[in-house]
Fold these 2 entries.
Entry 1:
Amino acid sequence: MITKDAGATRIGSFSGSSDAFAGFADARHWIGGSWHDPISSREVAEVLNPRFGRAIARVHHGGADDVEAAVQAATPAARSWGEWPVRERAQVLYRLRELMVARIDELSWLVSHENGKIFPEAKAEVEKAIECLEYGCSLPNLAAGNQLEVSRGVACEVVYEPLGVVAGVTPFNFPLMVPMWMLPQALVGGNAFILKPSERVPLSSLRLAEMLEEAGLPSGVFNVVQGGRPVVEALCDHPGIKAVGFVGSTAVAKQVYARSSSHGKRALCLGGAKNHLIVVPDADLELTAENVVASFTGCAGQRCMAASVLLAVGDVDHILEAIRARAAKIVVGKDLGPVTTAAARARIVGYIDGAERDGVKVSVDGRSASAEAGGFWVGPTILEGCEPSMKAACDEIFGPVLSVIRVPTLDRALEIENANPYGNASSVYTSSGDIARRVMERVDAGMCGVNIGVPVPREPFGFGGWNDSCFGHGNITGWDGYRFWTRQRKITSKWALQRDQTWMS
C-alpha cells in the first residue's frame, strides 16, 4: 500500500534565470499525486550541473517495491481515466500546453542547468516538447474510428482502446522532450503512465508532474519513479505494465526490448546511432559548412541525430576548409555547452587520443577547451584521414567530434554508410536533384536529409530509425506512437434480417 508523505510540499518553480549556478529541489518519486521517498533505503546520488561540475540537487533511487507502489496507484487511475471521453482527456493536454508556454523560460533554464545545454538549445528542446504536446491535442480528430458497411446490413468499425498501465524510460540528453515523445499519445489514448527519467537529469520530471496536476490530470494517471537499472528491470518485469517505451543506448535498448517482450509486453526501444553525412563537390559551400558544424556540435554532440562521420566524396577541400574555419570559431561556454559527466569527457577524449595514435590528423582540437572551472568541457573536434574500420569512425562517441573519411565516389560513400550497423539518420549535401534522389533511395537509414544535417521529422511525421537504432515496430512519435499505446477493437454488427444471403448472414 502507498503511504502518503504528510510533509510533501509543492516543488515550485526553478529560480535560475542565467548561467549562474542555482540549486533545486531533490528528485523523489511522484506516486498517486504526491511526493515519496523510496520505500526501502537506497542510493542517494548527486545531480550535477555539467557547466560547473557541482551538485544542484540529489536523486533518491528507487527499486522494484517503488515500481509496485506506482502500479498500485496507476491501475485504478487507468480504469477511471480510460472511461473519460477522448476529447476530455485531450483538454488536460491543452491546459498543460498553456502552462508550458507561459513558463517556457523557467523550463528552459531548468533543462540547461541539469543537462548542460546552452539556453537557446534548451529552449528549442522545450519548444519541441510543446510541439509534441500539440500533436497529442489533435488526436481526438485523428483517432476517430473507421466504420464501413461491409455487407448488406452488416457494419464493421474500429475503435482504439487503452492498454492500461504503461511505462517509459527516457535518456539524459533531452530530459523534457523525449518524455513528450511518449506522454501525449499514451495519455490521450487513456493509459496511466509511469516515467523513469535518467538519474542524471531527474529534475524536469518534477516540474512536469506538478504541471500535469495543475492542468487537471487525475492523481495516479502520471507517476515518476526515480532510479537506475533496478527500476528499469522492474518496469520490464511487472505483470501490471502492458507496454514499455525506451530511448537510450543500443546495448540497453536491446536488453529492455528482449526483457519486456519475454513477459508479453509491447516494447518499442530506440537505440544509438552513427550518422553519416555525404558531401559531394557541387554542395553549396556556405550552407554545407554552417549545417555540418551545427549538426556535430549542437547539444555538445549529445544527440542521436548528430553528425558523426563526414564522407567526403572527391574534391571537396574547399568545403572541408570552410567547416574547419567555422568550427574553430565556436566559443565554448557561449556557443557550446559541456558534456554531462567527467566520465563522458574522458571517454570522448579517449577516442580523440586513440585516433591520433592511429595517424589521424586532429585538424580542430577541442581537448583543451574549458569555460567555467570544474565543468566537463570538450570543444569542437575534427578528425581527418579516418579509415572506415577505425573506432572513431565506427563507435557512437556522443560528443562534438566529426570523423572525416575521404572516398573517391558516391557509390563508395554509400557502401560505407550502409555497412554500419545503425540506421538512424543520414544526409547528403548536393545541388543535384539526381544525386539527392540516388542517396535517398539507397541509404540504409530511417530518417534522411537533403542539405539537412539533423533530419528530425517534425510532427506529425514520426521519429524512428532502422536496424540497431530501433527495436520494435514503428515510430515512437506521431500516429505510430498512438497506435503503440492503444489496441484496436473491431466491432461487427447487424441489426436487421436480410432476405438475401451472404457468407456473413
Entry 2:
Amino acid sequence: MRFRLMMYAVMLSIAAGGLSALVAPQEAEAIPAFSRQTEKSCSTCHSAFPKLNQTGQNFRTNGFRFPEDKEWKDVQDLKHVPLSAEIEVEAEFNKDRSGNGGSNANNSQNSLLKIDEIELLAGTPLGKTGRASGYGVVNFAEGNVGIGQAYAQINDLLGATGHGLLNVKAGQFDIALPFLSHSQRVIKQRYYAQSQLGILGARDRGTVGDESEAQEFYNTAIEINGQMVGEESKDLTHRYAVGVFQPQGLNPTNNANLTNRLGDPGFYATYALNFFENFNIGAIYKRDVVNNATLGVPDAKKALDKFGVAGEAKVGPFIATLGYFRSEAVNARDLQNYMGEVLFIPDKQWVVGARVDHIDQELAQSGTRTTAMGRYNITPSVFVQAEWRVTDGLNQSTDQLRGRAFLVALF
C-alpha cells in the first residue's frame, strides 16, 4: 500500500512537471543563470545536463566567459541576478537480498518519497575585463544546510583576455578530470572512484547508512589551472591543473584522533587532451595525507598515492567513457577500479544510459555495481529520471537493489 501511494505521488509530480512545461517560458535552460547572462541555450555547453561538452569546459575554465564576447559587465550593470535554484524530488525503492532463495532467503525492502535537495547556485565573471570570477552553491538536504562548491578565480594571468591560459582558483571545488567528474554525472549514482577511492571530486561525509546517498563533502584547495584551445575544431586542446588541498571526509568524524589537520595538505595534478572535438583522454594524480590509527601512534599520518586514466568518445548520439583508477589504502589493501559508461542521447527529450563500476580490493571482497537510467526532459529545465542499480559484493552479505525516480526543476 505504501509503495502504491509513493507511485501515485511520483505520477502526480510528473503531471505537475508537465503542467509547468505548458506555462513556463520555453527559452528557460538548465542552470538558467548562465543562460540568462549569455543569452545562449543549455545545449551550447551541455551534452546532457550536467555533463559539459567542449564549449562548456572552455566556459568553465575561462571563468564563465566566452572569449568572443571580449568585454563583460560590472555587477551593477548585469541584466539578471546571477542566481539559480534547483529542486529535486526523489522516490526510492530499496531491497536487500540474501540467502539462496526459497525458505532460506532473507529479503527486506522499503520505499520513500521525499524532497531530496534544494540548491541555490550563483556564478559570474566580475568586471568588464572578467579578471575575476566567483561561484557558489548552498544546498538544503535532509534538514541540513551545507556549502557545496564555493570558490573565486583570478583569470588571465598570462595570455589573451578571456582565453584562460593561466588562472588561480581558491576555495571548495571539484578536483577531477575536466570531462569526468562527480559534478557532471548524468547517472546520479556515485562513481566508485569518488566514493571509495576519493579520486574524482567530492567525498561523502562518512554518514551512517548508504554511502551512495550521503551528503558530499568538498575539499578546500588552491589551484593553478589553464587551457590551450585550438583555433579549429580538429586542433588539439590541452587542459591542466595542479594544486594543494585539505583532505576531508576520509575518516570517521566521531573520533578526534582520525580527523585531518590543516597542516597536512594533499597534492594533485591533472592533464587532459581533446582532439577532433569529440574525443578526450586524461590522467589524474592525487596524494592524500590521512590519519592512520592502525599504526598505534596518536595522530600518525600516512600518505596515499592515487592515480587514474580515462578516455571518452562522442560518436553520433552515443557518449562512451572508460576509466581505470588505483589507490593505496590506509590498511595496505590497495584498491583498483574499472568503470565503463555509455549514454544514448537520440534527441532533446530523451537520455538513456548504463554504467558498470567494478572495484578490486587486495585481501578483501571485490564488488560490482551496475546502474541503468532513463531521462525525459519535460522542458529544457525540468526533467524526470529513473535509475535502477544492483550492487554485488564489496564487503556485503547481501545483494543490494536500489530504484530511484527523480523530478528535477531548475529556475
